[in-house]
């Protein structure tokens, strides 16, 4: 559970992202970082072709970022808000849950490199907790 202060910090950072998604690579740079640092994660994207082109990456990143935006708007009710997405990851995509912390880490690197000093240690801690909560919801339907 996030404290009121942590929620405010998550929302504050989202305000800096919202409307500027493109400059964050639409989230694609987070995925690119994931593939670079943890190449084994590419296996889940095989159906998109042998070498993912940049457009596909950006589209995927954009969708993920939108989902994060939805999660920010529904911090009190993550489970209901992300339920269809949880079904998709658990039943269709079957992404191993151990991949989520890796993506969370790459996403935070993107945030830190774009926001620099604006992304404080407290904000990072709040985002880490928030994204971990999102990952818990997205992976809890696995059987
Ligand atoms: Zn995921 C998809 C979100 C993680 C893999 N995703 C997806 C989508 C979204 C997401 C929104 C779209 C859907 C539709 O279309 O309907 N994810 C997300 C989030 C997260 C994630 C928010 C965290 C936080 N994923 C993940 C991981 C992985 C993945 C970790 C691995 C590595 N996804 C994926 C895939 C897909 C997705 C493979 C599909 C793609 C295509 O096909 O296009």
From TrEMBL:
GO biological process: hydrogen peroxide catabolic process
InterPro entries, sorted: Globin, Globin-like_sf, Globin/Proto, Hemoglobin_a-typ, Hemoglobin_oxygen_transport
Superkingdom, taxonomy of origin: Eukaryota
Pfam families assigned: Globin (PF00042)
GO molecular function: haptoglobin binding; heme binding; metal ion binding; organic acid binding; oxygen binding; oxygen carrier activity; peroxidase activity
Gene Ontology CC terms, in alphabetical order: blood microparticle; haptoglobin-hemoglobin complex; hemoglobin complex
Record keyword Transport present: yes
Record domain Globin: where: 1-143
This protein's UniProt keywords: Heme, Iron, Metal-binding, Oxygen transport, Transport
Family affiliation: Belongs to the globin family.
The protein's name in its UniProt record: Hemoglobin subunit mu
Gene that this sequence comes from: HBM
């Amino acid at each position: 559970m996030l404290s009121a202060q942590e929620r405010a910090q998550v929302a504050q950072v989202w305000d800096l992202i919202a409307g500027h998604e493109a400059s964050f690579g639409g989230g694609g740079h987070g995925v690119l970082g994931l593939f670079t640092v943890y190449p084994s994660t590419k296996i889940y994207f095989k159906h998109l072709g042998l070498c993912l082109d940049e457009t596909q990456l950006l589209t995927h990143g954009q969708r993920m970022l939108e989902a994060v935006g939805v999660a920010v708007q529904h911090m009190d009710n993550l489970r209901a808000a992300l339920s269809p997405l949880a079904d998709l990851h658990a039943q269709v995509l079957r992404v191993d849950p151990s991949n989520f912390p890796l993506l969370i880490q790459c996403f935070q690197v993107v945030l830190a490199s774009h926001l620099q000093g604006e992304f404080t240690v407290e904000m990072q801690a709040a985002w880490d907790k928030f994204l971990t909560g999102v990952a818990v919801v997205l992976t809890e339907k696995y059987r």
